[in-house]
Amino acid sequence: MISTLLVANRGEIARRVIRAARTLGVRTVAIYSEPDADAPHVAEADRAVALRGSTSAETYLDAEQVLAAARATGADAVHPGYGFLSENASFARACAGAGLTWVGPDPASIEAMGVKHTAKALAREAGVPTLPDALLSGDDPEEWTRAGEHVGFPLLVKASAGGGGSGMREVRAPDALADAVRSARAEAARSFGDDTVFLERLLDAPRHIEIQVLGDAHGHVVHLGERECSIQRRHQKVVEEAPSPAVSPELRERMGATAVALAEKLGYVGAGTVEFLLDEDRFFFLEMNTRLQVEHPVTEEVHGVDLVALQVSIADGEPLPFAQADVRPRGHAIEVRLYAEDPAHDDRPSPGTLHRYRHTSSGDDALRWEDALGDHGEVSAFYDPMIAKVIAHAPTRTAAARKLAAGLAQADIHGPATNRDLLVAVLRDPDFLAGETRTDFLERHADLRTPPPATPRVVHLAAAVACTSAARREHDPLAHLAPPGWRLLRGAPRPAVTWEGPDGEVVPALGGVGLRDVTPDGARVTLDGVEYRCRVAHHAGVAYVDDGEGHSAWREVPRLPAPDAAAGGAGPVSEVPGTVVEVLVREGEHVVAGQKLVVLEAMKMEHPALAAADGVVETVHVAVGQYVEAHATLVTLGAHE
C-alpha cells in the first residue's frame, strides 16, 4: 500500500495531486527547482527536496535527481502529473527498478502510444478510424513531396514524439512542405530529443473530442464520456468542456466503445485519454495520452469522481469502484486556462511578478480554481505560463458559461498581461453559447482577442489619478499643501501630467467625471449618471484598477526620464527572457528588413528576432544555448557601407 508519494511535477498539478493524496491519508514529497523555491506546492507537501538547476531539463526532467529525492525521503511511489516525465517509459521503468510504485500505466503502454505513427497503427488494428498518414524516414525533399501527395493536401507535419503543438506545422501546398519538415524536425529534436516527423491529412475546422478511460489491474476498463477541447491557440487547448454540445448519446456510445476497445487491446491500467477529431458525425483517431490530462477537472465535476485518487487506488491494486452502467453524467462543466500571455500580440508569453492574485474560492456557487501560484508570486520564464485552471459546474451549459465568465471578471490579477479578457469574451460570445466551437474558433473570432473595455477608460483613469494622489497624501503629510503639478515660480504654467494606460499615453481630461469616497484603495466614480465602484492597488509604481467587470493598469509617466531610458542596441532585442535555440547570421553578413536573425525559446514557444531594417551584422551577442533576459540586445546592426 502506498504510504509516501513523491509528486514529480510543479505548479497547479502538483498542488492537485498533493490535495488528493491528503484525502487518502498518503504523505507527500514535493520537488522544486531553484526558481520554484517559494512555490505553493513546496509548502503544501509534507516534505520537499530541492533540485539543482533552473530549466526543465536541469530539474524536473532529470530522472536521476527525481529518483534521488525519492530515496532521500523514503517515498514508495511516484505520481508524474502531466508533462515532464509523465509519458517517459524509461523513467517509469526506472521507478519500478528502484522499488517505487508508478502511478500511471505500465511502460509498454506508454511506449506503444508515445510514438504517434505507431500509435495510429495500433489504433487501426483495434478498429479505430484514422486519417491518411505517411512517416518521413529520409532527407530527400522529392520523397517528402511524393508522400505529401499520397496523404493529400492540406496536411500537418507532426512530431512523432511529444505533444502540445511542438513540432507541428500546417502545410497547404506542396511548395511549402520542405521548409515545414525541416522546421518541425528541428523543433521536435529540441523539444523531445527525437526529430522523427510524419505527415497527416488535415481536416479544416473539425472538433477536438477526447474520451476519458480508466482501467484497473483486474481487466476492467470503463470510459467517463467525452470532453470537447476545440478552442485552441497554436494547437494548445484554451477552453474545455464536458459534455460536448455536438455529441449525441448515440455518438458518445460509439466513441466511448472505440476508446475502450483500444485500451483493452493495450491491457491499459490507469487513467488515459483517447483523442479524436470529429467532422460532423465521423471521428478519427488523433492520439492517446497515457497520463492525466490538464482538463481532467471537467470530467470530475460532471461525473462526481476524483481521478487522481482513482489513479492512486488503481496503482495500489484496487479494482475500479464502478462499472460502465454506473457512469451517469450530471450537468455541464467548463474549464479555461488562465495564462500569463498577451492575446493582442500573438499570445506572447509575459513572465514577471504577479503582485496580487485574488478570487472568490468559497461558497456553494464558487468556481473551482486550480492555482499554480498563491496570492502573489513569480511567473517564471522557464516553464509553461499557466497561472490557473478555472472550472465552473452548473445544471446547464449556458449557466456554467455565465458563472465562469462572471467569476473570472471579478478576480484581481495584477502584474503580467493575461488572457483573462479573451476568456471572458469567448464565454459570452453568441457563437460559443450556441455550441459553434471548432478548432478555428479563435481565427474566426479574432476580435475577441482585443475586446472593448468593459468600463470606459476615463473611469479607471480618474480612479487611478485620484487614488494615487490620496496615497501620496497619506504617506507624505506635506503633500496635501500642494496639488499635483505644483509650481515654484510665480506665473509658471502647471506642467501637464501624462499617464500611460492600455491605449498608450494620455493627459488626463476628467471633465464630467465625479468622484466620491476617495481613498488610496478605491473610489466611487460617476460618469453620465452611472456609478462605478473601483478598487485600486499600487504595485511597483503602477495603479491597477478593478471594478468587477473592467480591469486596467495605469502608470504616471516621469517628467524627467531616466538617462538610460532611450538606451538600446542597434539591433533586435529579446521581447521575453528565454534560451537561444538558433543564431542564423554571422558577423559581417548583409541582412534585409524582416530577416530572421535569432530564435529564442521561452514558455514552450519560439520567438524569432527580426531585422528592423537593411544592414550589416556588426556583432552577434548571443550563442545557442545561452539564456538571455528580456530586452537584451541580441545582434548589433550597422548601416550598409
UniProtKB/TrEMBL annotation:
Domain Biotin carboxylation: 1-447
Keywords: ATP-binding, Biotin, Ligase, Nucleotide-binding
Named cofactor requirement(s): biotin
Gene3D superfamilies named among the record's database cross-references: 2.40.50.100, ATP-grasp fold, B domain
Limits of the ATP-grasp domain: 120-316
Pfam families: Biotin_carb_C, Biotin_carb_N, Biotin_lipoyl, CPSase_L_D2
Name used for this protein in its record: Biotin carboxylase N-terminal domain-containing protein
Lipoyl-binding domain span: 557-638
SUPFAM superfamilies: Glutathione synthetase ATP-binding domain-like, PreATP-grasp domain, Rudiment single hybrid motif, Single hybrid motif
Organism superkingdom: Bacteria
